[in-house]
Amino acid sequence: KMAGGNTATKKSIVKKRIKKFKRPQSDRIIHVPASWRRPKGIDGVYRRRFKGHGYMVNQGFGSDKKTRHLLPNGFKKFVVHNLKELEVLLMHNKTYAAEVAHNVSAKNRKTIVDRAAELDIVLTNGNARLRAEEDQ
Questions:
Q1: How many C-beta atoms lie closer than 10 Å to residue 62's C-beta?
Q2: What is the 3-state secondary structure (H, E, C) of the chain?
Q3: What are the Cα distances from residue 67, in Å, to 3, 21, 54, 126?
Q4: Burial (CB count <10 Å: 0-12, 13-18, 19+), residue 97
Q5: Which residues, other chains included, contact 130 with Cβ-Cβ below 8 Å and sequence gap of 6+?
Q6: How far is it, in rounded angstroms, from Cα 32 to Cα 65?
Q7: Angle, vertex CA 129, rays to CA 111 and CA 95, nearest 5
Q8: CA-to-CA distance for 80 and 103, rounded, in angstroms?
Q9: Nearest in space to 20 (alpha carbons), one of 65, 54, 68
Q10: 61-76 pLDDT tens trace
Q11: Which of 10, 16, 42, 121 is buried deepest, with most CB atoms within 10 A?
Q12: Residue 122: how many CB atoms within 10 A of its CB?
C-alpha cells in the first residue's frame, strides 16, 4: 500500500526479459565471468545467432519508455545522502521515491526519515537501521 496521497503510474510494468544475459561459455570456463560481453570472434556460434545458443543483447529487449526504471510500486528511485538532496524531491514526490544511501549513519537516517514524512515523500528503505526508542 502506498503512503499518503502519493500516486503512481496506472500502466502495468511488462518486462520483455527477466533473465540476465549471460556471457557465452561462462558456465564452462572458470576464468570467464558471467557478466555480459559481446562476442567478437569470427567463428562464434553465439555471435552468428545459431539455434540453441541463447540470445545476444540488442535494443529489441528494451522496456517500454513509460515504465522504464519504475519500481514495482510505480515510483522511480532517487538516492538521497542528506537532507538537502531530499528537499529536491519536494515538487516531485508523485513520480520519485527516495532511497537513503547505504553509507548514511543511523542518526542522519532518522532525520531524513522524519523530514520525508513531513514532505510526504515515499522512502523505499525508510525503516532500515532504526531501533526502537530505548529511553521509554
A1: 11
A2: CCCCCCCCCCCCCCCCCCCCCCCCCCCCCCCCCCCCCCCCCCCCCCCCCCCCCCCCCCHHHCCCCCCCCECCCCCEEEEECCHHHHHHHHHCCCCEEEEECCCCCHHHHHHHHHHHHHHCCCECCCCCCCCCCCCC
A3: 21, 20, 26, 24
A4: buried
A5: 106, 109, 110, 113
A6: 33
A7: 60
A8: 10
A9: 54
A10: 999 999 999 999 999 9
A11: 121
A12: 22
pLDDT tens profile 95-131: 999 999 999 999 999 999 999 999 999 999 989 887 7
Give the C-alpha separation, 131 to 106, whole Å: 9
Amino acid at the residue 13: I
Q: How many alpha carbons fall within 13 Å on the CB side of residue 85?
A: 16
Cell numbers describing residue 72: 514495482
For cell 532511497, what's the residue?
99
